[in-house]
Amino acid sequence: MTRLLSPAHVAERLDCSRPHVYGLIAAGRLRAVEIKATGTRAKTRIREEDLEAFIDANTRTTNSA
Question: Which of 13, 24, 61, 64 has CA atoms 20 to 30 A from the CA of 5?
Fold first, then answer.
């Protein structure tokens, strides 16, 4: 089962702010799910797999010489 995380939880995991998480989503760097019911404001959630993929894609490694 896929675990969905709130932007606040993702911000905590990345040690950044919620607005920064929303900025990553807006820039297309972090995938998000918009959950909306008729007449209500959409809720943004991030799949745990997408967060892990983001972390992996943005992890720097050094080359040993």
Answer: 61
